[in-house]
Write a structure and sequence with these properties.
460 residues; alpha/beta; Rossmann fold; seven-stranded parallel β-sheet
């Protein structure tokens, strides 16, 4: 008789963690009786063709589940940094620790959002004050520009008036306008990393805003994944840099690094036969946020001029936040790149896969590296795509002869690499072959499940 495990996971294919779970299930069920536990709001994503005959349990975190979970040999939680998919799972994990599989290195996005939702439920007045603060700061910025344009005021005098207003505001606004959820978050930072870390983050958030902070290098220094991990019985991660970080923290729990399983490699559905390969096809996909450097890549394409960008088509697939989308569209307009850059928004897996099969280059520039490893880059390697990345995070662990790596933020080298790709594309064939071979040899579903099985029984 097989031992039973509870496997907590989202099942919507909008998240790579659902795809990860679905890849593992056929092999996992060879050794265990598996119950999938997924939040009740995931019910609409159920597809028996993907899940198979595995028992699926829809849960609500507000209910007491301790008695239900005691019947399992092990309870395993898949955790990522998106509250939409992981909020309910995290709440159950807090009350009922087990093994956690940490998919994202930076978890502070999740915790800020977690505190935000909690705060919103209990005190909407803070949100109103925060909105007032943001409007006031915008007025202050406009005022500064106006002061500096007044002929009777020198630059220094106008600047000093602005600075005086700002300094008065600095003394008061944290108390009257910092929303409760950010106070809770900074208290957690102080508890986890100390006073200096909390003060540094508070200063940046108050002066430059939360969005600036969430895309700064500081999130790599204070990711709060170590805080999340402390409650776990045991921890599984998927990269060496994550393993090193946790082992150098004050965590005493068991930690196991296991290489990702094998993503499914689909053949083209030929729904995009209308794509004419008259141009080099570049591709980026996923949730399009600033740390994926889409804006910077488009800027480099524009700076390379029409001799370059008339030879390429850069396709971007994925949802984009409104503010970032506006910024990207303005840049496209500035360089007149409408014929060379296409933002397609969200597309289903068939369309995405067809573009992946047909593209000449996958652009995977990411920093800060919020993810613990990259499902998408392994997909690209198995599909023999040429890949361009920074030499950071998980990407730094892939051999240099498997992808084109450039130093972080070195846009001159990025220009040179892009030029060379379209002028000497055939010379990169070895990269693609090496990438496929490395992925096949190092990312294996059977090995993953075997390592997981050993880890479960070692802890008994």
């Amino acid at each position: 008789m097989k031992d039973k495990i509870a496997w907590f996971t989202p099942i919507s294919n909008s998240t790579g963690i659902a795809k990860f779970s679905k890849v593992l299930l056929p092999e996992l069920t060879k050794f265990f009786e598996v119950d999938i536990w997924t939040p009740i709001d995931q019910k609409e994503y159920y597809d028996k063709r993907e899940i198979g005959d595995v028992n699926i349990i829809y849960f609500e975190s507000g209910k007491e589940l301790r008695k239900n979970l005691k019947e399992y040999k092990e309870v395993i939680y898949n955790l990522g940094n998106n509250t939409k998919f992981h909020d309910e799972i995290y709440k159950v994990y807090q009350k009922n620790p087990g093994i956690i599989i940490l998919h994202d290195f930076v978890m502070l996005h999740y915790l800020i959002d977690f505190f935000y939702k909690k705060d919103l439920e209990k005190n909407k007045i803070y949100q109103l004050l925060f909105l007032i603060k943001r409007i006031f700061l915008k007025i202050l910025r406009i005022t500064k520009r106006a002061l500096l344009k007044i002929p009777l005021l020198s630059k220094s005098k106008g600047g000093k008036i602005h600075q005086k207003i700002r300094s008065v505001l600095d003394k008061k606004r944290f108390l009257i306008a910092m929303p409760g959820y950010l106070k809770d978050y900074l208290d957690l930072v102080k508890k986890t990393y100390g006073d200096d870390a909390a003060e540094t983050q508070k200063k940046i958030i108050m002066e430059k805003g939360i969005e600036f902070f969430l895309n700064s290098e500081l999130i790599m220094k204070y990711p709060l994944s170590d805080y999340i991990a402390k409650r776990a019985d045991s921890i599984i991660i998927h990269s060496d840099f994550y393993n090193d970080f946790l082992n150098n923290s004050d965590i005493t729990n068991r930690i196991k690094k296991i290489n990702f399983p094998t993503p499914v490699v689909n053949s083209s559905s030929n729904s995009l036969d209308e794509i004419k390969k008259e141009k080099f096809l570049f591709l980026s996909y996923g949730h399009i946020v600033p740390n994926k450097y889409i804006y910077e890549v488009i800027n480099v394409i524009g700076e390379l001029g029409p001799d370059f960008y008339n030879q390429i088509e850069y396709v971007i697939i994925g949802n984009v936040d409104a503010h970032y989308l506006e910024k990207i569209n303005n840049l496209i307009e500035t360089y007149k790149l409408q014929g060379s850059v296409k933002l397609l928004g969200y597309q289903d897996d068939n369309v995405l896969n067809d573009y992946l099969q047909k593209c000449d280059l996958c652009i995977n520039l990411r920093y800060p590296n919020a993810e613990g490893a990259s499902w998408s880059v392994i997909e690209q390697m198995l599909n023999k795509r040429l890949i361009l990345s920074f030499d950071t995070g998980f990407y730094a662990e892939i051999p240099n002869d498997c992808m084109c790596k450039i130093p972080l933020n070195d846009f001159d080298i990025l220009k040179d690499e892009l030029r060379n790709i379209i002028n000497n594309y055939s010379s990169y064939e070895e990269y693609k072959n090496n990438a496929e071979n490395f992925a096949k040899n190092n990312f294996c579903t059977e090995k993953y499940v075997q390592s997981l099985k050993e880890f479960i029984y070692e802890g008994c």
